[in-house]
Amino acid sequence: MMYPYMTLNDDTEITHSEMKPDGRVKVYIETPDEKVCFRHAACWLPEYKWEEVYAYTDAEIEYFKRLIRNNAHLIIEFSQEGGITNASNF
Question: pTM of the entire structure?
Answer without folding.
Answer: 0.93
